[in-house]
Design a protein that fits this description.
Strand content: 15-25%
Oligomer: single chain
Shape: elongated
CATH superfamily of one domain: Response regulator
CATH architecture of one domain: 3-Layer(aba) Sandwich
Structural class: alpha/beta
CATH class of one domain: Alpha Beta
Largest sheet: 10 strands, mixed
Number of strands: 23
Length: 687
């Protein structure tokens, strides 16, 4: 066999001088040579199958000589991370060198661990530490020396997570003076069969110079679970899990239930669905004072449940406690807010155009009226300089009659603006003005007026025909400005807003409250004083449920608060969160389950199941019937408002004229009520 090329060797311990003689006991049993040969055969067999990307060797001073030059010369070249630990080192809390070596191995993607150590307690400490902090890749292949201390009941949970493992048990028979050749018994954990009380390993092969059965020592144990029963905990949260009461029993459905049924069929297992105790109180669960967890998370963290269903968000908080499958969908998480009808009927006259359009119309009115006034004065001044015919000089009456008509319409600036405004209201001029420039301008201004009036009327018709618009909160900024309280479930949600880099998110966190009951939160929202945070699908269900309950209450003559508002889902998403199925920490089921979930997503089943669940909610959404094109008195408040403004302004003008007549005109010494025409003629001459 060709000599091995070691790509890298990392020794993470202080090496002490080790004598070649390992002691009379080891020399008698010749464990070192026999163990070396079987490790060489195991590694070469896995390398031939392209199953080893990087090898981690963890050993101690006792077995260090197993990994001498012969081992590396007779094995294929693979990257190696080698860690030698002291006999007194506590691997429940490894030293810095050991810890960094393990982290580097995990980072480099090493998928095979060879743990050859004499002290079984050190091995158990390493496995506990590696599982708790995810330092060891529990889905890698493991070769470990057989030690009864590894199979204590307190370690049974480890062998539910590390299933690709081979235990090497050394045998040496001595019959009389004849000595049989040493051999090794190769066994593994009995996955998927559960460990009940006593750990009984399952033999996979034997080795005495060569493998006896030549079986695949690391065959996939998750592809066929042989009808094993898996405990699945669930929490009712639409659309992932939907619980319906039928004849006193719970019928569970939803998107994640459909995914679970598909996984059970493909991986050949039976699921035992159950709901955690007091799930409506603890819900997903939170950390207790004693360090344990309640609710759904508590069932998974404690190892009672193999899978967890309940709209679990793919967040760092959940990833610390359990394994999450590849996300099967992404949900919009936002707020359920109150909405209110906007009584803007009084300003219907100005609604057809926005502010800038009204400014443009006003500017065009003033500019066009001024142009009409300027042109009219130009023609009047021009006529004053024209020589008049003798017959018109002789007869002043004929002269006045013969002057070009229509110029008086725009001869004064006030009249010019009024008549220009009248054309804007599609009121015809009493006289056609003289002068081609004024006539041409009038014609084109009429075209402008027709287009503007048609647009205004069409927009006005749509406004009067449609129902009154609703005032809603659709952005975080609007929610912050509304000053209403906000809430959601769980302390982790509040921490999410506290850790937000957005200023609006920080302000939301300041008034964010923990909500135990979404139905009570919906009642507070209807009062217009609250906003509730959850996924948009669940908020849709909550709003429909509230509307149905209100309709039922009205049908049985239960008095409802007339001030209750409709519930509105904020259109802007605070965040789009991936949703996954949960597995217990370092679960061996996750890799294959991810493959099947990806296939389910690609063929569109998740989208179809989600549509089925939400269709039922949409069908129950009994919207209020809105009668189109119905004009009522409320919608015409604007007309009465315009009339009231006209009455008011006319009255004020009349009042001002009355005051001017009685306190200014009559008090003038030259005023004579019997010769008023002479009084005004004198006033005009003075001007």
């Amino acid at each position: 066999m060709a000599g091995i090329v070691v790509k890298f060797v990392f020794i993470a311990a202080f090496m002490i001088p080790i004598q070649a003689d390992l002691g009379p006991l080891l020399n008698e049993l010749k464990v070192r040579k026999d163990l070396q040969f079987i490790l060489i055969d195991l590694l070469n067999g896995l390398v031939r199958k392209d199953g080893v990307t990087c090898l981690v060797i963890i050993t101690d001073a006792v077995y260090l000589n197993v990994f001498e030059g012969t081992y590396f010369k007779r094995t294929f070249a693979v990257p190696i991370v080698m860690i030698v630990v002291e006999e007194y080192e506590d691997l429940l809390s490894p030293n810095y060198d050991t810890l960094e070596a393990l982290r580097q191995a995990r980072t480099d993607g090493c998928n095979m661990y060879t743990i050859i150590m004499a002290n079984g307690f050190q091995v158990t400490g390493l496995l506990r530490f590696g599982d708790r902090h995810r330092i060891l890749d529990t889905r890698a292949k493991y070769i470990i020396l057989h030690d009864v201390r590894l199979f204590h009941s307190s370690l049974h949970y480890i062998w539910k997570r590390i299933v690709n493992v081979v235990f090497l048990k050394y045998h040496r028979r001595v019959i009389g003076k004849a000595k049989n050749k040493a051999w090794f018994d190769l066994s593994t954990v009995p996955f998927p069969n559960p460990i009940k009380g006593i750990f009984i390993s399952r033999r996979v092969d034997t080795w005495s110079g060569q493998f006896h059965y030549n079986r695949d020592l690391f065959a996939d144990k998750t592809g066929n679970l042989n009808g094993e029963i898996l405990n699945v905990v669930y929490f009712d949260h639409l659309p992932s899990v939907v619980v319906m009461k039928l004849n006193g029993t719970n019928k569970v459905g939803g998107v994640e239930i459909e995914i679970l049924n598909t996984l059970a069929k493909k991986m050949n297992f039976v699921h035992n669905l159950y709901e955690p105790m007091d799930s409506y109180i603890h819900k997903w669960g939170q950390k207790n004072n004693n360090g344990s967890y309640s609710g759904l998370l508590g069932e998974v963290v404690s190892g009672k449940a193999d899978l967890a269903l309940g709209n679990l968000q793919y967040t760092p908080y959940h990833l610390k406690l359990l394994d999450l499958s590849n996300p099967y969908t992404s949900q919009c998480w936002t707020f359920l807010t109150p909405e209110a009808l906007s009584d803007n009927s009084w300003k219907t006259l100005i609604l057809p155009f926005n502010l800038y359009m009204w400014i443009a119309v006003l500017l065009v009115l003033l500019v066009t009226g001024s142009i009409f006034y300027g042109l009219a004065n130009y023609y009047i001044n021009l006529l004053n300089y024209k020589p008049l015919n003798n017959k018109y000089k002789a007869n002043e009456k004929n002269y006045n009659y013969a002057k070009p008509v229509g110029l008086y319409l725009f001869g004064e600036i006030t009249n010019s603006i009024l008549y220009t405004y009248g054309m804007l209201l599609v009121v015809s001029l009493p006289k056609l003005p003289t002068g081609w420039s004024i006539r041409l301008l009038t014609g084109w201004y009429w075209l402008y007026c027709i287009l503007l009036v048609v647009s205004y009327r069409a927009s006005m018709t749509a406004i009067l025909a449609n129902p009154a618009p609703r005032v809603t909160i659709d952005t975080l900024k609007e929610l912050v400005n509304s000053k209403i309280a906000c809430g959601g479930w769980g302390l982790q949600t509040k921490r999410f807003f506290e850790g937000s880099l957005d200023e609006m998110g920080q302000k939301i966190s300041e008034r964010f409250e923990n909500v135990e009951n979404p139905e009570k939160a919906a009642e507070k929202i209807a009062k217009g004083v609250y906003a509730y945070y959850d996924s948009s699908d669940y908020l849709k269900y909550l709003s429909v449920k509230r509307k149905i309950s209100m309709n039922n209450s009205i049908s049985i003559d239960v008095t409802q608060d007339k001030g209750d508002r409709n519930l509105h889902i904020m259109s802007d998403c605070v965040v789009n969160i991936p949703i996954s199925i949960g597995f217990h920490k370092n679960s061996p089921l996750k890799p294959l389950a991810d493959v099947y979930i990806q296939r389910i997503i690609e063929v569109g089943l998740v989208e179809k199941w989600l549509s089925d669940v939400m269709y039922k909610i949409q069908s129950m959404d009994t919207k209020e019937e809105e009668i189109k094109a119905l004009i009522n008195l409320k919608k015409l408040y604007c007309a009465f408002l315009a009339l009231a403004i006209g009455y008011t302004l006319s009255f004020l003008c009349l009042l001002s004229e009355f005051v001017h007549w009685n306190f200014i005109v009559k008090k003038d010494p030259s005023f004579d009520k019997y010769a008023i025409d002479i009084y005004y003629m004198n006033k005009k001459n003075k001007l």
